[in-house]
């Protein structure tokens, strides 16, 4: 691999041992994928270091003690509990104590304590075409697709990119890997695609077919942030999609031809209403009227307008006894919502505004519940408007699930049973 004089100096230890070791890891990654050179990254979203994973927090604390410092603006991904208000989720005190060691470790390294899966909501929006190193599949696909920022699925090696400020020129950083591979034409009734759950279901259906490809989605025309976020989140979990194009919407696809870089595939997948119905059937295994004990919104983490919308629907209502209702967001958005009176309205209903985490990342995982002597499964039946959440909770939490819109989620929480209309 060709190194610049600056990179050679870093590797030789002129900018410290920790930075030299970080660069060495990144060089090895590049060589494994035949990258010709490294590029400068302008931003990094740091791996989640959750206490539910054995040794994860301890490793992070130990790494911070090496003197490693991030060299680009760096935010942090989610944790296993709400560190500001741990009591609202019922996380065991032992886990909270362990997880809290992350905060001083991150400060020591210069990492911003955002603890969110949606750093783009906090203003971390690099210029079009710039290079980044990110974790969190819903963020990665949003940055790549909606913002036109170039990134791969960084994994734990993102730590080393944050410290050395470099990443190999490979994968989705290269023009040739950003062209479409699968062509989808959406012929779903327009009134169906009007809520997060429906866009989530669309992403789930396409992701199953596209796998690790780059889908080009024709026939939809939305610039609503929450819809694009919901679409991308399930594309990245039902499949392993890292980039999608919507002609006329996303920045690298002014036309279908541009999305495919002039090489249109022979086959086009047509998506109809019944295909969307099949996703709801896959992710819903309870019937209308069945009892439920958990409702969640905010996967990925909610924006302030979505918290405001949920508050308006909850105003004057009460959550049914025995039902837990989490609305997940980040710390900064919760602060804004507290200032605006939104949190007060939500919490008067009995729902909780939860930060730093979400149900699937929390202590409610079956393995964690067993370790701490808690009920397994911790949840019997969950209602949610996110296909991404429901893709995971069946296995990780072990509960029954239902996919529906925000309004029905709230009705279900109030009535204590699954409501579909």
Describe this structure in words.
By secondary structure, the chain is α/β, with parallel strands linked by helices. The protein folds into three domains: 5-175, Aconitase, domain 3 (2-Layer Sandwich), CATH 3.30.499; 179-281, no CATH class; 284-415, 2-Layer Sandwich (Aconitase, domain 3), CATH 3.30.499.10. Helices cover 38% and strands 12% of the residues. The chain contains 17 helices and 13 strands. The strands form four sheets. It has a five-stranded parallel β-sheet, with helices on both faces. It has a three-stranded parallel β-sheet with strand order 3-2-4, with helices on one face. A three-stranded parallel β-sheet has the order 7-6-8. Helix 3 (56-64) links the parallel strand 2 and strand 3. It is globular, with a radius of gyration of 22 Å. The mean pLDDT is 97.
Keywords:
alpha/beta, Aconitase, domain 3, 13 strands, three-stranded parallel beta sheet, 3 domains, 38% helix, 421 residues
Furnish the topology, listing elements before pairings.
Elements: H1 5-11, H2 17-32, E1 38-40, E2 43-46, H3 56-64, E3 74-76, H4 93-99, H5 102-109, E4 132-134, H6 137-145, H7 158-164, E5 166-168, E6 182-186, H8 196-210, E7 215-218, H9 225-238, H10 256-259, E8 268-271, H11 273-283, E9 294-297, H12 304-314, E10 324-329, H13 331-339, H14 342-348, E11 352-355, H15 366-371, E12 381-384, H16 387-396, E13 400-403, H17 406-415
Parallel strand pairs: 2-3, 2-4, 6-7, 6-8, 9-10, 9-12, 10-11, 12-13
Antiparallel strand pairs: 1-5
Helix pairs in contact: 2-7, 3-5, 6-9, 8-9, 8-11, 12-14
């Amino acid at each position: 691999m060709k190194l610049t004089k600056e990179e050679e100096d870093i590797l030789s230890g002129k900018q410290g041992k920790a930075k030299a070791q970080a660069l060495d890891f990144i060089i090895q990654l590049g060589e494994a994928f035949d990258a010709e050179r490294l590029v400068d990254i302008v931003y990094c979203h740091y791996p989640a270091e959750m206490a539910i994973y054995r040794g994860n927090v301890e490793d992070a604390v130990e790494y911070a003690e090496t003197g490693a410092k991030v060299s680009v603006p760096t935010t942090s991904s989610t944790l296993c509990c709400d560190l500001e208000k741990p009591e609202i989720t019922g996380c065991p005190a032992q886990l909270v104590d362990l997880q809290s060691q992350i905060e001083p470790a991150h400060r020591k390294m210069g990492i911003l304590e955002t603890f969110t899966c949606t750093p783009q909501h906090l203003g971390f929006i690099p210029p079009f075409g710039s290079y980044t190193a990110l974790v969190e599949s819903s963020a990665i696909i949003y940055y790549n697709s909606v913002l036109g920022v170039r990134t791969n699925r960084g994994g734990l090696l993102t730590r080393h990119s944050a410290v050395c400020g470099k990443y190999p020129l490979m994968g989705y950083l290269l023009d040739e890997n950003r062209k479409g591979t699968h062509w989808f034409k959406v012929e779903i009734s327009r009134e169906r695609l009007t809520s997060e759950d429906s866009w989530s279901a669309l992403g789930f259906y396409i992701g199953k077919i596209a796998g690790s490809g780059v889908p080009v989605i024709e026939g939809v025309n939305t610039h609503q942030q929450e819809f694009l976020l919901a679409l991308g989140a399930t594309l990245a979990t039902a499949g392993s999609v890292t980039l999608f194009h919507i002609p006329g919407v996303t920045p690298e696809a002014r036309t279908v031809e541009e999305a495919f870089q002039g090489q249109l595939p022979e086959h086009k997948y047509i998506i109809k209403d019944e295909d969307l119905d099949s996703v709801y059937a896959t992710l819903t295994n309870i019937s209308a009227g069945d009892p439920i004990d958990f409702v969640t919104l905010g996967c990925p983490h909610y924006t302030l307008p979505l918290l405001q919308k949920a508050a308006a629907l909850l105003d004057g209502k009460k959550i049914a006894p025995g039902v837990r209702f989490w609305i997940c967001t980040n710390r900064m958005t919760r602060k804004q919502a507290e200032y605006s009176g939104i949190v007060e309205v939500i919490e008067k209903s009995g729902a909780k505004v939860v930060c730093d985490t979400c149900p699937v990342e929390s202590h409610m995982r079956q393995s964690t519940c067993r370790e701490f002597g808690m009920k397994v499964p911790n949840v019997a039946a969950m209602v949610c408007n996110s296909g991404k959440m429901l893709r995971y909770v069946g296995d990780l939490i072990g509960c029954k699930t239902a996919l529906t819109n925000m309004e029905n989620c709230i009705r279900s929480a109030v009535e204590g049973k699954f409501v579909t209309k």
